[in-house]
Design goal:
Elements: H1 2-38, H2 46-87
Helix pairs in contact: 1-2
């Protein structure tokens, strides 16, 4: 039973770290698309601008999703740690 709790806690810790890294990466990519939107260019059309803004919105939205998942798993992990400390 204790071994299973340790495996679950390790899995949750790795998910928290992975989701945080995914969120940071997507946030960085989204900011580069935003820079492509605001930097002036002579041959940029309105369709390009809308495509950049759509990509920015999509990447930032998915980034927020990954940060929320990371926080959710972090709370579950904290609850598991609290239960373990109460049992000891």
């Amino acid at each position: 039973m204790e071994n299973r709790k340790n495996e679950t806690a390790a899995m949750l810790r790795s998910k928290v770290a992975d989701y945080k890294q995914f969120g940071i990466t997507l946030l960085s990519v989204g900011s580069f698309f935003y820079l492509g939107t605001i930097l002036p260019s002579g041959d940029k059309t309105m369709i390009d601008t809308y495509a950049y803004m759509g990509a920015t919105t999509m990447f930032l939205g998915v980034s927020i999703l990954f940060f929320l998942l990371s926080n959710k798993h972090k709370k579950v992990l904290a609850e598991m740690d609290d239960q373990d400390s109460l049992q000891q």
